[in-house]
Structure formats: structure tokens, C-alpha cells
């Protein structure tokens, strides 16, 4: 299954509902969306179990696998994602 612009737009809309103030797309959905089998997102403004709730809702509504990483606290990987990913929010 390819990742479409509609998947990305819906991800942004749901993220805004959760009060997320930074959302970054990275990985295969950014680099080769026509071949991607999941959406990799990094976010800030949400924490704890709500992060997993957000990921579950995305998977349910988008009907595609979703990988979520938090941007806070910063890690070497989150800094890498920030430098290479596409800022959606």
C-alpha cells in the first residue's frame, strides 16, 4: 500500500485535534511514498499513553501502520529526524 497525500493530510488533522505542535514525517513515506508500507512520524506536544492513543487512532483511521517517536526529550535519533524529516506542523 502506498502512502498518499490524503494519509498525510488526515495525520495532520488528527495531530491538531490532539494538540500536537510539532509533527515531522520521516522514513519511507517521505522518501518513497509509492512504496511505503507505513508512516513514520515524530511529534511533540503529547506524552505518555496519549502518544500511543494517537498512534492507534491514526492506524485505525488511515488503515495503515504508523510508527511514532516523541521529539521530547531530545535524543540523537530525534535530532536526526528533525534534520532530515519534513515538518508538517
Description of the structure:
Helices cover 45% and strands 22% of the residues. The relative contact order is 0.24. The protein contains four helices and four strands, in the order αβαβαβαβ. It has one domain: Beta Polymerase, domain 2. α3 (49-62) links the parallel β2 (38-44) and β3. The chain has helices spanning 5-17, 28-31, 49-62, 76-84, and strands spanning 22-26, 38-44, 65-70, 86-87. The mean pLDDT is 93. It starts with a helix and ends with a strand. The longest helix has 14 residues, at 49-62. By secondary structure, the protein is of the alpha+beta class.
Low-confidence stretches: none
The percent of residues in helical segments reads 40-55%
Biggest pleated-sheet summary: 4 strands, mixed
How are helices and strands ordered from N to C? HEHEHEHE
CATH class: Alpha Beta
Q: What best-fitting shape do the alpha-carbon axes yield? A: globular
Roughly what fraction of the amino acids lie in strands? Answer: 15-25%
Tell me the structural class.
alpha+beta
Query: What is the CA–CA distance across the termini?
Result: 24 Å
Task: Give the spatial strand order of the biggest sheet.
Answer: 3-2-1-4
**What count of helical segments does DSSP give?**
4
Q: What is the mean predicted local confidence, pLDDT?
A: 93
Number of domains: 1
Extended strand count = 4
Give the C-alpha Rg: 12 Å
**Architecture per CATH nomenclature, i.e. the level-2 architecture:** 2-Layer Sandwich
List keywords for this structure.
4 helices; 4 strands; four-stranded mixed β-sheet; alpha+beta; 22% strand; Beta Polymerase, domain 2
Amino acid at each position: 500500500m502506498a502512502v498518499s497525500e490524503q494519509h498525510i493530510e488526515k495525520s495532520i488533522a488528527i495531530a491538531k485535534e490532539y494538540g500536537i505542535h510539532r509533527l515531522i514525517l520521516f522514513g519511507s513515506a517521505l522518501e518513497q511514498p509509492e512504496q511505503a508500507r507505513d508512516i513514520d512520524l515524530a511529534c511533540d506536544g503529547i506524552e505518555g499513553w496519549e502518544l500511543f492513543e494517537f498512534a492507534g487512532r491514526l492506524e485505525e483511521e488511515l488503515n495503515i501502520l504508523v510508527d511514532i517517536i516523541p521529539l521530547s526529550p531530545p535524543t540523537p535519533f530525534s535530532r536526526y529526524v528533525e534534520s532530515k524529516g519534513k515538518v508538517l506542523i
